[in-house]
Design a protein that fits this description.
By secondary structure, the protein is mostly helical. The chain is built from 15 helices and no strands. The chain has a domain at 88-275 and 300-320: MetI-like (MetI-like fold), CATH 1.10.3720.10. The protein has helices at residues 3-10, 26-29, 36-63, 80-86, 89-121, 127-139, 142-152, 159-166, 182-210, 215-222, 227-255, 259-264, 276-286, 290-298, 300-320. α3 (36-63) packs across α14, α6 (127-139) packs across α9 (182-210) and α11 (227-255) packs antiparallel against α15 (300-320).
């Protein structure tokens, strides 16, 4: 028997050849069928262009021109605004603060989110209520939560200072000024931003933990591996791509966020909590210098592109290995 006939008999007598054009679905053979997929993507493309493309183009045009609030006309100045921004001590300070703000909050977020994901992975009584409470800071408006934290950290009405004084750890007028001292202010905005972003990373890591096959940790437990050895040698290596995704989103959200800083400290005291987005807002919107504000905001683009590229390369290597 010939090999082709043998293959036909093994497949139940059906031929493995592709169907002829006449046997293909009628939708694919219609005149406008090939454009159906592109038409379905068109609303999403228009949305991205309108929300991201147009503002980015306007920011670039403003950054290479001399544009202020109420100005008439447009004058091209080239890279003068970028040169002015690079020589500004306020910009260098805000860039350093952005790095501290991002790194500090993401370390706390990843450690806290991984701990919560491990705690919420297994079933226990009241797990649904605990998951709801964990997700509440992310669901609630960030402005509402930041205003609440501003009252908690207030110099006069802070409930934290009231507890510290009641426990006789500080005197009544010697309690910490959480938003009035540079180091304490930076620590406060990091903690409040961590409180807000933590639920999002927890959901991502929890989804990754539930995707790990149960038989692998169980086999490790049979071989005598304890909790920490299983965590270090099995769970974390298998979770590395998911950790990279959570870290990538966290860096982007944190480096471009100014809500917490704006509500709590307005960049103070003495610009100790001023970050790049808030500096661009104060310079371009409140200060009226749209050109320099746009130039400051455009410095975020190459930084985030480099971070995203590196994180995606690391995630790809982890998936390959």
């Amino acid at each position: 028997m010939k090999p082709a006939e043998h293959n036909v008999e093994r497949c139940g007598g059906a031929s493995a050849t592709p169907p002829s054009p006449r046997e293909r679905p009628r939708v694919a053979r219609r005149p406008g069928g090939r454009w159906l997929g592109a038409a379905m993507f068109l609303p999403a493309i228009l949305y991205v262009v309108a929300i991201i493309g147009v503002p980015f183009l306007m920011a670039f045009l403003y950054a290479v021109g001399d544009v202020r609030v109420g100005s008439v006309g447009y004058h091209f100045v080239g890279l003068e605004n970028f040169r002015s921004v690079l020589h500004s001590p306020a910009f260098r300070r805000s860039l350093f603060n952005s790095v501290i703000f991002t790194v500090g909050s993401q370390v706390l977020v990843i450690v806290g989110a991984f701990t919560l994901a491990l705690a919420l992975r297994d079933k226990f009584r009241g797990r649904g209520v605990v998951r709801f409470l964990v997700m509440l800071p992310w669901v609630a408006p960030v402005s509402l939560g930041a205003i609440g934290w501003k009252w908690i950290l207030d110099s006069l009405y802070s409930v934290i200072n009231w507890l510290l004084v009641a426990m006789h750890l500080f005197r009544q007028f010697d309690a910490p000024q959480w938003l009035g001292e540079p180091k304490l202010a930076m620590m406060s905005v990091i903690l409040v931003h961590t409180w807000h972003v933590l639920p999002f990373s927890t959901v991502i890591l929890l989804a990754g933990l539930t995707a790990i096959p149960r038989d692998i940790p169980e086999a490790a437990a049979v071989d005598g591996a304890g909790f920490w050895r299983t965590l270090v040698h099995i769970t974390i290596p298998m979770m590395r791509p998911i950790l990279n995704v959570a870290l990538l989103f966290g860096i982007i959200f944190t480096f471009t966020d100014m809500t917490v800083v704006y509500i709590l400290t307005r960049g103070g005291p003495y610009d100790s909590t001023q970050v790049v987005p808030s500096l661009a807002f104060f310079t371009g919107i409140l200060g009226g210098d749209l050109a320099e504000g746009a130039a400051i905001s455009l410095f975020l683009v190459p930084i985030l592109v480099i971070v995203a590229y590196l994180m995606l390369r690391v995630a790809h290597r982890a998936e390959v290995t």
